[in-house]
Amino acid sequence: MSHEVHARLEGVTRVYPAVAGNPPVHALGPIDLDLRKGEFFSIVGPSGCGKSTCMDVLAGLAAPTEGNVWFEGKRVDGNVPDGIGAVFQEDASFPWLTVEDNAAFGLRRAGVDAAEIRRRVDYALGFVGLKAFAKAYPAQLSGGMRQRVCIARTLVLQPRLILLDEPFGALDAQTRLLMGDELLKLWRETGATVLLITHALDEAAMLSDRIGAMSARPGHFLETVETGWSRDRDSRMLEGETFGHITGRLWQMLRSESQRAMGHEEGAA
Ligand SMILES: Nc1ncnc2c1ncn2[C@@H]1O[C@H](COP(=O)(O)OP(=O)(O)OP(=O)(O)O)[C@@H](O)[C@H]1O
User: Which residue of 112, 145, 163, 236 has the fewest CB atoms within a 10 Å radius of its CB?
Assistant: First the structure.
């Protein structure tokens, strides 16, 4: 794999200012992260450690308090860079649009021609398994299906860097595995770089080239684990021995951090 850097966080911290008598919250960092072009990188870490904040900073949705963010050699300074597509934790589908119009939304705004929109929407709805629901409205779908609409809406933009914050959180375990396989297929076909935030260690272990394990808040990387998988991996390797070693290693690092995050200190500072 090429080690060309696609995106970089350099000494990044994020502090949320004091609000209504509450003290400022040091949410993240300082952290350094080099995302390699074309790699699949996951971030795991205890609840509230700053994972979503990290993604917001990279996506240009929040400015870092300190440090620098780079994408394709250019500074990301509070603007969403062209070429980055993000899917957030919460369902952000538009209730007044059908599934296909939701998926087409960004392309229409960008003035893409109708035939190209149709082609990309067809592909994206096929990817998320919602072709049969193209004419349905979000209210007629389950929470997990609505989340898949949001994934489709991002994919049609053909991002070169895809940021996914717990995109499968609302899905049942079996659908999660299948979506994971589809995501790997998409990653192979498009050559995009993927940054996935997940609390599911098995999901990170199955999907990633590298996994960054974060400490409790303010999050910094404790260690980056290389999985060593080939590009043509899929969920069938869940049965293998290596998979257990990776999840075991991640949990070893994260157990005490998760206890700290929950306020159950176990000799940790
Ligand atoms: N807008 C905000 N104002 C103040 N504090 C915030 C804000 N957003 C997040 N925080 C705080 O920053 C910290 C990190 O939040 P963040 O959402 O990045 O964590 P996370 O690792 O994604 O959490 P989870 O895994 O539970 O989704 C938390 O303590 C949170 O309370």
Answer: 236
